[in-house]
Amino acid sequence: SEDAPTEVTEDAVKEAPEPELDPWEALELEAAKWKDQAIRAAAELDNFRKRMTREKLDAVRYGNQGLLEELLPVLDNFDMGMQAAAQEKGSMLYMGMNMVQKQIGEFFTSQNVLEIPAAAGGEFDPNLHEAISQETCEGIDEGKIVRVVRKGYRTGERLLRPSNVIIALGAESTESSETPTSE
Length: 183
Hints:
Number of strands: 6
Strand content: 15-25%
Number of helices: 4
Order of helices and strands: HHHHEEEEEE
Distance between the termini: 120 Å
Oligomer: single chain
Radius of gyration: 37 Å
Strand order of the largest sheet: 1-4-5
Largest sheet: 3 strands, antiparallel
Helix content: 40-55%
Structural class: alpha+beta
């Protein structure tokens, strides 16, 4: 019947005409989209190249860091041997060990490995030093280094191993029992 309501189907909605863009505007929008993608891709490629260059330089600069870290205990033991051999400075053993110590020093210098400065009475820096103990010490202010237990090293700006140090405690306050004075 003619009075029956007409049903709107999905097919009828899909077939509804969309407002058409001018073909020239559609091409401009498409070109702008591709231009934006090209600029983003170029920026990503440039960032990738910079990151790879930086990582390559770091790999060359710090590639042997693991080897150097493994050599540090050997250097510690060699230093202990040098201290024992120093008892007889004229001996052939001492002279031979001294030559080897110079070669080791030259090798570490060529690898840009530097000893971290730490001396009795020096400033404690938690970025470079590891406090393993505290003790009271006359003449050294609280928080300063009393002595170095193990030397620390760095290569460039990277820490290979912190210096193990003992730092000074503050002067112990001895409270004497005073009798109050009468006023």
